[in-house]
Amino acid sequence: MSGINGKVVAITGAGSGIGEASALLLASHGAKLVLGARRGDRLEALAARIEAEGGTAAWTTTDVRRRSDLADLVACARERYGALNVLVNNAGVGPISPFDELRVEDWDQMIDVNFRGVLYGIAAALPVFREQRKGQFVNVVSTAGLRIVPNQAVYAATKNAVRTLTEGLRQEAGPDLRVTMVSPGYVGTEFADSVTSPTVKSQTPTVDFSLAPDDIARAIAFAIEQPSNVDVGDIVVRPTAQG
Fold first, then answer.
1. How far apart are CA 166 and CA 161, in angstroms?
2. Is-catalytic flag, 155?
C-alpha cells in the first residue's frame, strides 16, 4: 500500500469501530493520522498506541454536530502536517426504532450526526482540497440504504442522503479531487449500543455473523491507496451470510 505512505488522513468517529480500525491500518502503512471523536480519552489512547507502534497521529475532540469542530479537525491537520489529503467521514449513530414509537429525538440525532456531520466535514475540507488541487473524501454509508427494512427507515434515509450528496460531489469534484463511498453491511462495532428501542433490542439476532471493523478498514485503505487519477466511487462490503 505504497499509495498511503505519507498521506495526511483525518477520520471522524475514530474512537472505536471502523474509525479506530482504519486509523491503525492506515498508520501501519505510513499515513499521518488526525483523529476526531467525542471521547478524548479514547483518542489519546489510540494516538499513543499508533505512536508506540512507530506511526504518527494527532487528535482533537470532535463532535460532528458542531461545524466548528470539523473546522478544527481540518485545521489540526494543516497545523501539524501542513496539508490534508483525505477526510474519512465515518462518524455515525443508529438508534433505530419502529415509526410508531415516535422517537423523534433519535431521528434528529441521526440526521445531525449521519447527514449534517458529513456536510460539515465537506464544508471544512473542500476549500483546502481546492487550494491544494488534490484531496479525497471517503464517506462511510451503509447497506441499510440499499435494502430498506422495517425499523431502519430513518437511519437508511440519512445514509441515502449521504449517498446522494456523495455522488453529486463526485460529479462536481473535477479532475483533481476523488470522492468515495463505502457501504458496510453488518459490522461488529459499538453501533448497536446506540439502539434505544426495546422492540428492536428484543429482535436482535442471537447468531453473530457480522464483519470485523478491520474488514471495512481494508476497503477504505484500498480506495485511498489508488493512484491520483483513479477514483474508486463506490464499495459495498457485506458478510457472505447477509441477505
1. 8
2. yes
For 202-211, how does the pLDDT look when each residue is reduced to its tens digit (9 = 90+)? 676 555 778 9
Residues 25 and 215 sit within 8 Å (Cβ to Cβ): no
Residues 46-73 pLDDT 10s: 999 999 999 999 999 999 999 999 999 9
Look at residues 92, 95, 91, 118 and name the one whose alpha carbon lies nearest to residue 106. Answer: 95
Q: Which residue has the cell 429482535?
A: 203
Q: Which residues pair with 165 in a beta bridge?
A: none
Q: Helix H segments across the chain? A: 17-28, 40-52, 67-81, 104-110, 117-132, 153-173, 198-202, 213-225
Q: Which of 81, 120, 155, 186 is catalytic?
A: 155
Angle, CA of 223, 15 and 129, to the nearest 5°: 45
Cα 68 to Cα 63, 101, 113: the distances in Å are 9, 33, 14
